[in-house]
Design a protein that fits this description.
alpha+beta; six-stranded mixed β-sheet; single chain; five-stranded antiparallel β-sheet; 32% helix
Amino acid sequence: MANVGMVGLDWQERINWDRLRKHRLARARERMKAHGLGAMLLMYDENVRYVTSTLTPGWNRLKPGLRYAMLCGDDAPVLFEQGDIGVHIAKHSPWIPKENIKYSYAWIKGAAGAASLQQVGKFVNGVKAAMKKAGVDGQKLGVDFIDINMIQVFKDNKIDWVDGMTPMMEARAVKNQDEHECMRQVGAIGDAAHWEFMRFLKPGLTENQLTAHIMKFLYDIPGMEDVEDVIVSSGLNTWPNWRNFSDRIIKPGDMVFMDLAALTWNGYKSCYYRTYMVGREPNQEQKDVYAEALGWLYDSIKAVKVGATTRDIAMKWPSAKDTWGYEEEDQAAANLWGHGLGLAQYDQPVISRIWSLDHPIEIKEGMVFALETQHGRTHQWGVRIEEMLIVHKDSVEIVSNFPVEQITVVDPMPGYCNYGKLPGR
């Protein structure tokens, strides 16, 4: 559960945002140097946020280059902000020196057409100037994003660019105590959202109405920046897991699951599934399938400890062939799954039988991730369960607290007749 309240006070230290900012910047710089880089050019939203502690407006997201940042040697971060938004940064983000707040040179992944190369030219001049000012010009530049326009202009300017995403992934993987508290807040908000979902769920509503209700509920919470998705699937949509919502009407006796993927509170993201039954108790087969998926989940959670690997966790899950008859694990991608949580919904580690058995990653103190399992009957019904957890030195802390040991039953009624009913319809 969340340890403290959501707002800052003079009489109680809660999330220490200054300590959080300094931790993130120090982690990024340490991993940059560990990889032999003189500088990093960061264009993905989560990496810009991690280094500069500035917010990417919604319409800027998923458009690398509208705003970007650089970390050069031992200098303070340089933020290339979209348009004149830098005026706000100068006022509200004093941890960034005013002289390090620039405007960006965008080409929007080539949407600028013939002007793209011209814009990338200006972009690269800004990159070179920042590196020269920090005394790291000529050294390796790590980049987290590249496109065809950048490749040619980098080559023309003899910029030695290399992978910059791996050092940032490594940096973001280990969280400090303030980031852990952010994730406890995310967990508590998720608990409340699932409780509200349980209260609101009833026959006659559509999946998209349920999604809209929970989105409204979440956006009313202070600090909520974004709700990327609220997945609501019911009846035949639950298996295989559609991972979407539709206008399907919820019927009496339906199985429904909901995933908060991802509410974003002060930058930190959730992924949090629970399974519900509407209007009746689950039958024995459904209880057995749920118990099996729950066993897979908690067997994998119990394998989590400092020094273990993602292979140890993934080995607790059955193969895709044994479980669903699939020829390759890739066909069951995300069915039995784990992924880091933080400023991105996919921090390290990402855990799957697809790659974790042969390419394990060590579990480290401070990591935060979700583990999730699912099972079902094709186009009839399915279950999905997920927990979010923090890895401590000698323990694991689960920050998702909504009941999990059985399917949550909403307003059960007797008297159902199965005669003449198609499965899952």
